[in-house]
Amino acid sequence: MTITITNYRELFANIHERPQMWLIREDFASVVAFIEGCDQANARTLLTGFQPWLVTQAGCLNNHVWWSIVAHLTEPIGPKNFRDMDPDLDARTVESLFDLLDEFLELRDEHDGTNRIFAAHEQWRRLRELNGCSATDAPNCPTVPWPRAASRIKPNSPTP
Asked: How far is residue 156's CA from residue 158's CA, in Å, rounded to a whole number?
């Protein structure tokens, strides 16, 4: 029997709503492992652009894996051990991951969404190079507008 999943936003929303139906544990590491498995099952195309999109939002961490950036966006202070996060930070990081993943998949499904993600990341990378920030994550280095899904853009805010 072959099962085909056609809407990963819906799948991830179901997992977020009822994690015990899908996961052995509800912690960040288990959710990351499940999502990585989904990406692997899709020949590593499901998350294409996710890491650069997160980097553009974080303004740093270009050499980090996506789950490390999600943890940083949730709590920018201090290192995180994903196998041993305190319960509050772990729960907040899981919430952040599902919110970010949903918006990312929505954006990527929009017309030209993937191109907007990679264009913003490339602009960010070039600005950092031009300003001598390539080797550091200095907070005073230039940033670029973070591409947002159309449904997430608030009225009267600049559109990326």
From this structure: 7
Q: Is 93 left (phi over 0), alpha (psi -120 to 50) or beta?
A: alpha
Model confidence pTM above 0.70: yes
Q: Of all helices (H) and strands (E), which one includes residue 12?
A: helix 8-17
Q: Which residues contact 127 (CB under 8 A, 6 or more apart)?
A: 133, 141, 142, 143, 144
Contact status, residue 122 vs residue 79, Cβ threshold 8 Å: no
Q: For 13-52, how does the pLDDT look when each residue is reduced to its tens digit (9 = 90+)?
A: 999 999 999 999 999 999 999 999 999 999 999 999 999 9
157 in a structural domain: no
One DSSP character per residue, 55-96 reads HHHHT--TTS-HHHHHHHHH--SS---TTS--HHHHHHHHHH
Round to whole Å and give the CA distance between 86 and 91.
9
State how many domains the chain has: 1
45 within a domain of the structure (yes/no): yes
Residue 88 lies in a domain: yes
Give a yes or no: residue 117 inside a domain. Answer: yes
For residue 67, give its domain range: 8-150
